[in-house]
Amino acid sequence: MPKILVIDDDPAIQIVLKKLLNAQGHEVTIASNGVEGVKKAKELQPAVIICDWMMPQMDGLEVCRRIKADPELAISFFILLTSRVTIQDRVYGLDNGADDFLCKPVELDELRARVKAGLRLHQVNQDLQAQKQMLETELSEAAEYVRSLLPLPLNGRISIDSRFIPSRQLGGDCFDYYWLDPDYLAIY
């Protein structure tokens, strides 16, 4: 069940949103201010956060900036709840990290659609993060494999040492050396 965090200082809006979202099958947690909201977001790592713009202590834009700055929370879909309706306000909210807006008073169908869209994008982001992690693991394993193939340092008449610095891509390069006879060293 997707987790949704509602951050709003108005008890009436808290009750309405929780009831509507619970009826849609979502697990809803409420925070009464921005400070509590950031703390609960870190604990829950919700898929969607619906946050009021105008709140005491910490407004919704600051909450959004803190959420988006946290790598573990950055993929949470952030909906800014506001009575502000100008284009400049929306641009300002988007510039500060909001993913979407809900205008007060909240319309049930719009709430459902925006949360549904947010959940889809959150799932895509989770899938991309999982793929990225898998690729990083595979690159790390490939680097260890290549490192295991490198020749040991050579000391004597000629000294050879090497350093392997893996790239962010797989390649087919190799490096080795060996004595052909006492006078000739092959390096490739």
Notes on the structure:
- This protein has a domain at 3-133: Rossmann fold (3-Layer(aba) Sandwich), CATH 3.40.50.
- With 188 residues, it is α/β, with parallel strands linked by helices.
- The mean pLDDT is 91.
- It contains five helices and seven strands; from the N terminus they run βαβαβαβαβαββ.
- A hairpin with a 2-residue loop joins strand 6 and strand 7 (184-187).
- The termini are far apart.
- Helix 2 (34-44) packs parallel to helix 3.
- The strands form two sheets. It has a five-stranded parallel β-sheet with strand order 2-1-3-4-5, with helices on both faces. The chain has a two-stranded antiparallel sheet with strand order 6-7.
- Helices cover 45% and strands 18% of the residues.
